[in-house]
Design a protein that fits this description.
The protein is mainly alpha-helical. The chain is built from 11 helices and 7 strands. The strands form 3 sheets. A 3-stranded parallel beta sheet has the order 5-6-7. A two-stranded parallel sheet has the order 1-4. Strands 2-3 form a two-stranded antiparallel ribbon.
Length: 281
């Protein structure tokens, strides 16, 4: 099969599908809407939050059902109910993403346009899709192949990683340079880096690092890690520790080499010192 339904998680001992895991569109509409005496339906977010964590397959659905899914997932605040999320994980091994859900929607028809526009990421078919669906989507699959969605996710994560690597590299060197200049200015000693030196270093760093990081291809391991929280900073705690640690090492080494170099063996600290060793000669 497609692997959407897992026998251990979504089926009972007899192989039957557990409740709410798979349903038809008409059943889904009855479960997430309230109906008045005239039969008019009103979307109920609380009822929807009781269904969507379990739902894996929605068969015979209409474009309105897709819009209801996108609308309900975008408006769901279930992740704030820590007790409920813990219960879902303990009882059914359902892991609720700890932030507003990221909704991806596919479609090819004109009626799919509202759902594509309302979703965080809309995928339209480049061959079979209508122009209205393409205009409403964020990404167009030129080959109408769902496997291309995996490639898009892989490259998207690769771009994110490349930006993080570039920021860590760039900020580490800039922190080192600025710290060295500030220390030299405070203690009133000669600064080894002039304005032209700083400009040259930044030009070299920007171009070389950008080319190196932008040309790094993605790997399959990128798809094995969980998604990044939309509210998380692009600079993680580990990156910050790396930048501070490397910058401290670079500044300490430069200060020692430039202003306290008498500890270096076989090197004259002053012109009157005795010259010994093959390096001095």
């Amino acid at each position: 099969g497609a692997g959407i339904l897992n026998m251990e998680l979504h089926c009972d001992a007899n192989g039957g599908v557990l409740p709410k895991r798979a349903m038809e569109g008409k059943v889904f509409r009855r479960m997430v809407h309230d109906y008045n005496e005239e039969g008019e339906a009103t979307f109920n977010q609380d009822k929807f939050d009781e269904v969507w964590p379990y739902l894996r397959v929605l068969a015979r659905s209409s474009p309105d059902d897709k819009l209801t899914l996108a609308n309900g997932l975008n408006g769901s605040l279930l992740f704030k109910d820590r007790e409920r999320c813990a219960q879902l994980w303990q009882e059914d091994k359902i892991d609720v993403f700890p932030d507003r859900q990221v909704v991806a929607m596919t479609g090819d028809g004109t009626n799919d346009a509202p759902a594509l526009r309302y979703a965080d990421v809309g995928f339209a078919m480049g061959i079979a899709g209508t122009q209205i669906a393409k205009d409403a989507a964020n990404i167009i699959l030129l080959d109408d192949n769902f496997a291309s969605i995996v490639q898009a996710a892989k490259w998207g994560r690769n771009v994110f990683d490349s930006i993080q690597k570039f920021l860590q590299f760039q900020l580490t060197v800039n922190i080192s340079i600025l710290t060295l200049n500030v220390i030299c200015a405070v203690v009133n000693i000669h600064c080894p880096l002039t304005v032209l030196h700083l400009l040259w270093l930044n030009l070299i760093m920007d171009s070389a690092a950008s080319i190196a990081l932008a040309s790094e291809p993605p790997t399959d391991e990128l798809l094995e890690r969980p998604p990044v929280n939309r509210h998380d900073s692009i600079i993680t705690k580990q990156m910050l520790m790396n930048m501070i640690g490397v910058a401290a090492y670079e500044v300490s080494l430069m200060m020692g080499l430039l202003y306290k170099y008498d500890w270096i063996p076989d090197l004259q600290a002053h012109p009157t010192d005795l010259v010994t060793g093959f390096k001095s000669r």
